[in-house]
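Figure caption, in words: inputs first, then the predicted bound structure.
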Amino acid sequence: MTQKDKEQGAAKKDKGVLYLGIDLGTSRTSVCASNGVRETISSYVGYPKDMVARKLLKKDVLFGQEALEKRLSLDLYRPLGDGVIKHDETDAKASAANMRAAQDLIREIIARAQPRSDELIYAVIGAPAQASIHNKKAILDAARAGVDSAMLCSEPFSVAYGLDWLEDVLVIDIGAGTTDLCRMHGTMPEESDQLTNFFAGDHVDKTLFDLMKKSCPGASFTIEMVKAIKEKNADVSEEMAKIIAMLPVNGKPTPFDVTSDVRTACRSIVKPMVEGLGELVASFHPEFQEKLKNRVLLAGGGSLIKNLDRAIEDEMRERLGGGRVVKIEEPLYGGANGALKIAHDMPEEYWEKLK
Ligand SMILES: Nc1ncnc2c1ncn2[C@@H]1O[C@H](COP(=O)(O)OP(=O)(O)OP(=O)(O)O)[C@@H](O)[C@H]1O
Ligand SMILES: [Mg+2]
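Bound structure (magnesium ion present):
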């Protein structure tokens, strides 16, 4: 133990610690805190475009839904994209702006957990699996301003940890930008236990948008409207209820049947998901492969698609000869809850001291 660790240990006893589990997502960032607070904001960060906007909004930075509503007066960022903090080698300015937005987002989610000024903050940050592998430093740097000690873990791992499902489980976390698959076998997962694909919520939205462009002639609509239709009705079963979308044609709301479009778009993520599942099963210890197939856990916002568990089981039966899938009960807080549990359990040496 270094001198710094000892000092920190002593400070921890004196001051008390607020533990935070943070789920840093492309579309939504949530926190569960040891003081009982639970909060979630959509992952938008906006800065007033000019003096007029600044005067109108009376703030230097806006977050979540409020930022989205005022977006015409703001430079708007969604700092995580495709599972990592957005970074463009050829555009240093844009990369720096995304980094700043990520920092502000983390600072805001910590503030929403209402820490007392004298508390030390220990945060476990669950990020998309790819970000936790490739963006570790960037995320820890983003957290530095608001956190005394931090630990990064991949989101599917925190989801499984929260449920105490640590052995022979396959977690599928269906987010906005990415679907992360993670194999758990009683230890910390390694890179070879994780797979990521881009067939997630945003892909469903894009597919549905393209299908509706064909099947709703003359209608005008945006990707946000399509996403709202999806979130209200998402289903993959043949027997799903009919979905009628009211869309403007030359300014007049007009009904369109989008049932089969919604089903097709939602189904588009099933095959690639089961392909990934198959890879993680096939490369696992042969004696435990059956067990793994029979403990597949669906998490993330995308797991709210109705009957998705059954559709994945059907596809698994065809490709892998069988399998059982269950859905997590709290998709919104599964990641943050698990991260908080990790925070409570982790011994001092696992923490990265940021201050
Ligand atoms: N009821 C619903 N039915 C279908 N999809 C939904 C529903 N509610 C939310 N979603 C979708 O879930 C996705 C967001 O999931 P989640 O909040 O877990 O993502 P995230 O953690 O922010 O993203 P990522 O893990 O990619 O960083 C979005 O694409 C959203 O449209
Ligand atoms: Mg997520």
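Residues 201-267 form a domain with the Nucleotidyltransferase; domain 5 fold (CATH 3.30.420.40).
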